[in-house]
Amino acid sequence: MSQTETTVRLEIPAEFSHSAPVPWAVAQLEAALAGRGLHITEGSDSLPIRLRKDDALEVESFGLTAAEDGIVVTAAEPRGFAYGLTELADILRTAEEPLAALTTAEAAPKTPAAPVRGVLRSFSSDVLDLGWFRDPEFWTGYLDELAAQRINRVHLALGMQYNYSHDPDVRDNYLCFAYPFLVEVPGWEQVRVEGLGEDDRRRNLEALRFASDEAARRGIHFQLGLWNHAVRPELDESPELRYPIAGLPDEQIPAYSADALRLLLAECPAIAGVTFRVHYEGGVPEKDHGAFWRTVMSGLRDAGRQLDVDMHAKGVDAELIQVAREVGAHAAISPKYWAEHQGLAYHQASVRPLEKARPANGDGLRGVTQNERRFTRYGYGDFLGEERDYDVIFRVWPGSQRFLIWADPELFAGYGRFSTLGGALGAELCEPLTFRGRKDTGRDGIPRDLYVDESLSLGRDDWKKYAYEYRLWGRLMYDPSASEETWLRSLRQEFGAAAEPLASALSSAGKVMPLVTVTQSLSASNNFFWPEVFTDMPIARHARSLDTYDFDLEDPGTWGTASPFDPQIFETADAYAAGLMSGKPSGRITPDQVASRLLLMAESAEAALEDARKSAPEPESPSFRRLAIDVALEALLARFFAGKIQAGVAYSLFSATGDTQILRSGLADYQEGRDALARLIKTASGIYGANLAFGDRPSEQGHWSDRLAQVDADIAELARELEEVARGTNGSDASAVASRRSTQWRQGGLDHTPAGDFVHGRPFVVQAQAEPGITVELRARHLNQGEDWLAVPMNREGGELSATIPADYTEARFPLEYFFVLRDEDSHDAWLVPGLEESLANQPYHVVTGHLA
Q: Which of 36, 70, 102 delimits the end of a domain?
């Protein structure tokens, strides 16, 4: 077809022409065509775009085939066709020659890697969130973006702004106990929200109905999160509660909730599922939680449609799983991915020792969560058994807060590969700003997006800052092997020649916080550990941070002993120092190696950002500045943490050896990190608000400038300690300095082909090959974070190695995961295989599935 021709015609099978989301996708394509001077007509001389059904394709799969006589979109069902049409629209919007791009568009059909590619958006503040919640224009633009990026589930979470059992001084409880804010329930007319008018309640219900209807129109599963079922705060000591709920005694909450849920689902027929926080933080004592939830969930029975019931995994036990079965809903359990934070793409090989199960102690409020099933708090626990009759969907919690943009394609592709671990369905990302304004902190006049530079603020459309992140999340969860053109074309459209270096800068910067989070893991709780705006933990004199981190650290609770979130893969500073002194390193990734990697990320991000600035057509435009400022801040955070980590290692070695030279060197590193933090504060000045509030604790709000004095105090105390010790010593131990291992991450040295599967109840033999002088130990475990790892030495015959996992261990109906610890007898070095690659986006262990003989 000639480039001068300007019309396109659509040929859509009648069975799909009115099936959501095809009509929505057609409108998207029509708008993209019109934006490039093309139009949809019925003319016979127009370029045809044909939708062709192919029953052999999987759900959501689509293919594109271009030829001289037109373009063919193949799929088996409406959502696949919609993805094909929106892919054409995306190509059209970004191509220099739209018709040429359209007539050469090709895509081989692929089965989505992760069946569930979700985001969670929370209502956390009446001041900051009522505006977007009730705004149809917000929902249409936001949902258009999610659907175009193949995000197929949106979770609107109500009631996450407080942990009621921990927060008796509740004030902003808007939509916390959501039902009476949305519906008046027949037979329960006495239940009312004081201070809420009938018009407000009507508008809230209309907003929920509109959002869920519009999601369904785009082929997005709409999940309603009802995260709180406490009518009153725990101790009933909230004199400043803004919206008291009257007329509902505690003993009537379950029955009222069931009736209200039944009505709410009837009023909003596009709600496809409900998420419940079923442990004590949702307001329900765990001793009798089965009876409570059996009554509440009975409200799902008469919905007239199959609903998904998603139970937040913390504290879930067999009784609650049985309750979900009884109501006839499709049951899912949603564990946290990396505690309450966004970590790397793989799942932690083990949870911290603090998360191990504890004996029952008779605590009727929270005994299940805090004791018997404690290991379910911050990972998948024991939920990945092979004979389960429920689904698993991981949730990337809002921790680290992520108001800066963190967007690395390699890590997002890793989520696409590993969010289906053990047959799980995928993951739901708590989007940036999820907890913004939580715990009544949204009343200081700072916009939801935290910008005080008005040229950068996006108002109710704050999500647009993260459009690139949504693109990576949705498209790389769908296809982790997607071409870089998938994301570059959106940057190229807006930033021209700066697209490639800007993507590189964002990639390097996007790895910083996930690596910091999983290695400097001072608390699993996002209420205390906020590495993005870090409350300092002192190093000097083996101090303990009694007011911030002490409750969540094992004794002695010092910087050098704080466990990473994955203690199988990463090393503490003290243990690293001990391994150096003994000549028997553990093989885990060391703090020195982490610091080195952070510095490389900073250098790469800064160099790429400089290239992007030079080539950007409008480097002072708000859209470029938003990304550039965040990349610069992230690089400086990497430099700060690198200096802090190096100082921590130096202090651990100094404590073991008395070598003042090492401590002096560490102080210099710390000072460099401190100076990076000072530059960060200067860079952010006038850009972000003085109170970056995500909660009411000091560790959940404030600014980087508040943290500088903490760091300065620690540096000064280290200097005093050095001065005191130096008076009575020669101050040098060259052997200790020389013993620090290379900061390169050693890999390889072992040839191993993972087995495809194993037979339950039979020995599982693992074989490998290694060079002489290398000893190898196999580490293995069921895919169950409630268990410890086996350590099995591998027997050597020549270059052949083997180890056997016994039959009584393989009997359990769980997949197996394993990795290797290698030791070089000559160099006394040790490392893990497969280990973490330079991308940080692989899985550092193998997983095999069992079957019956």
A: 102
